[in-house]
Amino acid sequence: MKRFSLFLLFVVSLGLLVEKSPAQDQDPEEQETRSYRVRPNFWKMWNGSQPSDVDDPFASPADDAKPRLVGRDFEKDFFEAYGVEFPEGSFARFDADSRRLEIRQTRPGFELVEAVFESIENSAERKLNIRVEIFEMPAKAALKVQQLTGPLNDHTPIYRHVIDMVDREQARLVNSVGTLARSGNRMGVKDASELIYATEVEWDGDEGVVIPRSFETREVGTLLEVDPLLGADGYTIDLNFQLEHHTAPPIMREVTVTSPATGKAVVVEMPEFHAKQIVSQIAMEADSMKCVGAWRPTGKPEFEEADLMQVVFLRIDEEEVKWFEPWTD
Fold it and tell me: Which of 72, 139, 156, 290 has the largest count of CB atoms under 10 Å?
């Protein structure tokens, strides 16, 4: 019996030496108050039943209205629709002027509240910022860039090396275009000018002149079209895109054409375009970059004299959706 008592005393003493964590000491039913800053269009995220005979409780008041806390339990209704219970003494209320959401809850209750926030932000429609950057560099360096990016999924480290080359004047940024797109929607951006030129002509024998009869318009510059589709995992993106870049303005050259009406051969000026194109479908992760192609520029004398290439990087950034942020004074 004495031996058992000594063992029990040892166990009790050992238990007293173990430090309890604050979470273990906290009463799960104890309530605390936390505040969050809410985006202005937060209320649109809730598709629950809202009485039609009252104003939107989260709508901004008139400029001359005094700050107030919106009542009528609409805020509690919002969270209760997601299964959050409010025991006696707890509350949820919103200051429409400051967009401050104040919640008093238990610790388990706040775990559910945070889960509601995460659920809303994950289900919100996310926008994708898609950007193309075109760099010019010696052909040997461009070949090395393509070789290094080959086995990599994310080409950001190689892109940073190219930026270092620009800083050291070993390469230059030719152009950059970008657009904000939604998943499943085709978007485009153009940094271009229009060139109108004749495609059919006739010979006027009485006047002795060439008369244009048909015209076409072509855009010259950098043109990007994208069609992104965000995957179910929330970060993989299937991207269809088409890029057209003109490395030089069109050059007007004399060509001989035959008038369809008279059969007379006449000499006219027609534009010679220096367009490079990439049409592709790739899979990328959000917030990553890929080298999607390279070409030799044409249309300028310096391109003929120097051994140059242009390398194209494409980047996709996923817009972070934060509807609720901890309140900071």
Answer: 290
